[in-house]
Design a protein that fits this description.
Layout lengths: L9 H12 L6 H35 L5 H16 L1
Length: 84
Amino acid sequence: MASMNISVPDSMREWVQSRIESGEYASVSDYVRDLIRRDQNTGARQLSVEDIRRTIEGGRAAGESSPAEEVFGHIEDKLRRLAG
């Protein structure tokens, strides 16, 4: 595992320390890893929304039509794959 050193204002350091003292996190590293994982998941969700928008726009431009249940099924499948 690699190491990183960061500098933060005292108020941020105190915030992180309070999260550790409350038992929510075991260490500063644990807290930072959780933030990174959340950011990665947010990025994946944003990509899926853009993908869905492109698919909808492409279908409209081509004059295609599908039942709503089928469309939502495809969207749910894509979201499951991204979350998996």
